[in-house]
Backbone:
C-alpha cells in the first residue's frame, strides 16, 4: 500500500484517538519505494554511453575528406601502375570530436535529470 492509500484510509475512517499500535500498523502498511541499485544505475549509464558512441559513429560523415587525415603513407608501385598501400596512419579528428561531444552531452543530460530529481525531492519535503 502506498503512502497516499494509507492517508486516504485514515481520512475515510471515523475520527477517534489512535493508539500507538494503530499508528505503528498504519506506518507498516506504507511500502517504501524501491531504491535503484547503484550497479543497475551504472549499467544504465554505460548503456547510454555506448548508445551515444554508436550514434556518433553511425552519424559520422565518412566520405568527408576534411574529417579524416591520412599520414605517413607507405606504398609500392607495382607493374601496370598498381599502387599497393603497405601502411598508413589515419587521424579521424572530427570523429573524435563527435564522440567526445556526444559523451559530454550525455553527462550534461544526466546532470540535468539529477538536478530535477533533487528539486522534486526538496519540494516534497
Residues:
Amino acid at each position: 500500500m502506498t503512502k497516499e492509500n494509507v492517508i486516504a484510509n485514515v481520512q475515510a475512517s471515523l475520527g477517534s484517538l489512535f493508539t500507538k499500535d494503530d499508528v505503528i500498523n498504519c506506518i507498516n502498511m506504507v511500502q517504501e519505494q524501491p531504491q535503484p541499485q547503484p550497479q543497475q544505475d551504472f549499467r544504465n549509464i554505460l548503456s547510454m554511453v555506448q548508445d551515444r558512441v554508436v550514434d556518433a559513429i553511425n552519424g559520422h560523415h565518412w566520405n568527408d575528406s576534411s574529417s579524416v587525415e591520412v599520414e605517413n603513407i607507405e606504398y609500392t608501385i607495382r607493374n601496370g601502375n598498381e599502387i599497393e598501400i603497405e601502411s598508413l596512419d589515419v587521424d579521424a579528428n572530427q570523429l573524435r570530436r563527435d564522440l567526445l561531444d556526444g559523451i559530454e552531452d550525455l553527462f550534461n543530460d544526466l546532470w540535468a535529470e539529477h538536478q530535477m530529481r533533487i528539486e522534486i525531492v526538496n519540494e516534497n519535503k
